[in-house]
Amino acid sequence: MNIVIIGTGNAATVLAKKFVAAGHHIIQVFGRDLHAASKLAYEFDTESTNYWSVIRKDADVYIIAVSDDAITEVARHLQLPGRVVAHTAGSVSKDVLKAISSHYGVFYPLQSLRKEMSTLPEIPVFIDASDEKAKDVLNRLAVSISPEKIMLANDQDRRKLHIAAVVVSNFVNHLFALAEDYCKKEGLDFQQLLPLIEETVMRLKTVSPKHAQTGPAIRNDQPTIDQHLQLLQSHPQLKKIYELMTNSIQSSAGSSNN
Fold first, then answer.
1. Distance CA 208, CA 191 (A)
2. How many Å from the N-terminal Cα to the C-terminal Cα in the chain?
3. Exposed end of the chain (fewer CB within 10 Å): N or C?
4. pTM over 0.70
5. In angstroms, rounded to a whole number, what is the distance separating the alpha carbons of residues 155 and 161?
């Protein structure tokens, strides 16, 4: 397929690389920052622009990979009758694009994407579409980059998925950041925790998180909890989260035993 990428950030960059690796052609990159658009376009030996009026009208599909709050603004500037256009946001309705074309939808990659990724990750893709034409094009595009990880998800389902994704990715990464900061302040090496982190994640492939829970909270080991809280007196933010998570684990364990 011939694809126009609208956006120059993490999602735009990684998806464009996946598309090209799957044999598609990026025929144009649009970005508000011409330097960023030109830099991304250079990777694919294609053209770039920061003018709405010169966006090409001959692509098979237009992928809007910008921040959630910028999608509506992008939609105001595009008129692509007869073409398939999709945004990549989990929490934004597909209908924000309905004034652009009658063939519109969502191409939502459920993955944390970063420009600097040295290898292209596995990307589960959730699609939604206004009609059969858009559905067919987006499905074929999704299958080309993730043949075993394609699912349909309407606006409501994607919003719910996005919440779960925030919890398992953004929130968990924040816990890593707090732990790293704690280690630095206490003269510890955060890298020593990486085998534990890796094992915790790999365990989820075969065991439910609820059944894999370990630690002093699930054991109701109050002496250890009290000791930890005492040691965290000089780390008030981490102490507060430790208490919150401990209470949550214990509450969850109590409710499952009732």
1. 26
2. 55
3. C
4. yes
5. 10
